[in-house]
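Hi V.,

Quick status before I head out on leave. The structure for the redesign project is tokenized and pasted below; the design run finished overnight.
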């Protein structure tokens, strides 16, 4: 059984504070009366100021060292390590001298040439209400020049590919 002073200490515990209800939003909060304002003695104020001064002095190094990094240094095996990608074989199609690349470019150039020519004729074919008919005259001229260039490059490419393919079997038989 607990002694008298222990029982008195148990009964002297303050009751837990109950949560206060929210203030009525229609009424303004009443200011504290002078009797309700907590007062502190001059000793408590001096002690509080001394604590603030100690905390401020303790925090001065934080302001001075704000550019320091607070992470550990990287291990040496990670520093200066260059990752080497595996050597990839170059694709022969990317070289413009390959026969396959030239054979692939021929239909592309022909289609582009025909599309440029069709785009150039649109100004003269569409009706007066179409916005294409309002284009300046230099636009179809530029499109016709591009069409002529694309088709001529395709024809030159066809001639070169034909010549290269004609020489290839002769080179294989001499080996």
């Amino acid at each position: 059984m607990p002694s008298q002073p222990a029982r008195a200490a148990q009964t002297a515990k303050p009751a837990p504070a109950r949560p206060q209800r929210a203030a009525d939003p229609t009424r303004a909060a009443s200011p504290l009366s002078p009797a309700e304002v907590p007062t502190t003695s001059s000793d408590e104020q001096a002690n509080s100021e001394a604590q603030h001064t100690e905390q401020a002095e303790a925090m001065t190094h934080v302001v001075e060292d704000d550019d320091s990094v607070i992470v550990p240094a990287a291990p040496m095996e990670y520093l200066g390590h260059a990752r080497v990608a595996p050597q990839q074989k170059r694709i022969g199609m990317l070289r413009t001298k390959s026969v396959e690349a030239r054979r692939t470019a021929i239909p592309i150039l022909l289609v582009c040439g025909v599309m440029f020519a069709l785009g150039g004729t649109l100004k003269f074919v569409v009706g007066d209400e179409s916005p294409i008919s309002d284009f300046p005259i230099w636009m179809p001229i530029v499109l016709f020049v591009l069409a002529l260039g694309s088709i001529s490059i395709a024809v030159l490419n066809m001639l070169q590919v034909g010549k290269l393919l004609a020489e290839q079997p002769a080179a294989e038989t001499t080996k």
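Above is the designed sequence. The helical segments are 4-11, 42-64, 99-125, 138-174.

G. will cover questions while I'm gone.

Best,
W.
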